[in-house]
What does this fold into?
Amino acid sequence: MTAASAERVKVWDAWVRLTHWLVAALVPVAWWTAEKGMMAPHRLAGYAIMALVLFRLWWGVAGSSTARFASFVKGPRAFLGYARTLLDGSSRTVGHNPMGGWSVVALLVLLVAVTALGLFAVDIDGFEPGPLGRFVSFDQGRVIAHWHELTFWALVAVIALHIAAVVFYLVVRRENLVGAMIGGYKRDVGDHAPPRFAPVWLAVLGAALAAGATWWISKGLRWPPF
Amino acid sequence: MRMKIILGAALAACVAGAAGAAAMTGAQAAADRQAHMKQMGGAMKGIFDELQKPSPAPAALNQYAQRLDALAAQLPSWFPAGSGAESGVKVATKADIWARPAEFSARAAALKTEAHKLAGVAGGGDSAAIQAQFRAVKGACGACHEGFKVKS
It folds into this structure.
């Protein structure tokens, strides 16, 4: 492996990067506002995260090749095969590697779980239930609030693992994944076909769908919505 | 009509209180208090949910508000000595409840006043007045929880 002569390849489109960093910024905001009992901004942070996650799910099927689940969710054989080369760094991938892909899946599943549970959660005083709180009783809403918190800490655990992996790549393998997620380019990706990037209109459509769905959910899924 | 309900609730509370006081252990009192607080939370959620609807039903709002009013009036009796952490029940009460009884009583009295006002307007169909008074009740609940309840 020689990294010196490596060419720069664009691997992450702006949508993936923006979604990633907005979620990374908003999760601590959601946590902090909940700790301080500031429910109005907590809701807004939750809605924003929800819209971003919905967009990411859309982008996972309709987006650029490196964003698509089909391109990075791999079976156990690929996972173990990659794991064997983890330390020597001999196998490189354009987008997510077969291990990192599962990290993305775990993060998305937990983000969906935390936000979905939050929609039905009821605070101890019954003051400010989530926007779908009317579908559950007070006692059910309390149980859900408990799970909302438990799944949040599970999310924190996976985020910690994710960050540890990024540090590992930087220190042991000398690969700067953070820089790639900021600028979009990777060096030395090996012999791979270049990624295909999805057109802007698909992103705009997905963003509109995600924002619309989130807005309707935040209004309590009422019909008619207006 | 409303006066009758309040008097009835107060009377029932007195009778129940007199009968139960002698035999009531701290653990029982703590468990009862938690059940009552959950009923209050349920009534609060009921009002919240109703107010979220495009056209809240006055009858439903009134029902929840009356329940809340009756419970708020009983609240001071839910904290007998021995019903705190020493009861063995997992409680969220702070020792300050018994260390600063005058302040605690004032907070409880404030809730009673606000809950009673809410019961007065809840069935009247004046959304703005109900919203405002609902916020006042929230404020009264929160003001006491702020100093006297362990944050979960």
User: Anything to note?
Assistant: Chain B touches chain A at residues 38, 40-46, 48-49, 52, 54, 138, 141-142, 145, 152 (CB under 8 Å).
